[in-house]
Write a structure and sequence with these properties.
Distance between the termini: 25 Å
Radius of gyration: 14 Å
Strand content: 35-45%
Helix content: under 10%
Number of strands: 6
Largest sheet: 6 strands, antiparallel
Structural class: mainly beta
Strand order of the largest sheet: 5-4-3-2-1-6
Order of helices and strands: EEEEEE
């Protein structure tokens, strides 16, 4: 999404909170070393839009721009820094 574009009207009805799950990477079938959860954080809507153009959520040291339509984490920082190499951010199911 173009950050200078008008926010998507669907964003106005975005949920007020999500649970972000940080994992060591997307697992390949049978690759047990890449499974597991490194950290979770409940993030709440800030009322702002991030540089990605999606609603910004923050909490527990995590800031995330989340697309409410696809439930995709578009941008994320952990304790003010980029995620460590190989980590991925996803939303908890539900």
């Amino acid at each position: 999404m173009n950050p200078s574009a008008e926010p998507d009207p669907a964003s106005a009805s975005a949920p007020g909170r999500y649970t972000v799950v940080l994992r060591p990477g997307l697992a390949e079938p049978g690759d047990s070393a890449r499974r597991g959860v490194l950290r979770t954080a409940v993030v709440e809507a800030t009322g702002e839009f991030g540089a990605s153009g999606y609603p910004r959520y923050a909490g527990e040291g995590v800031q995330a721009d989340i697309d409410p339509l696809t439930r995709t984490v578009e941008a994320v920082t952990l304790d003010g820094a980029e995620l460590p190499y190989g980590w991925v951010a996803q939303l908890a199911a539900g």
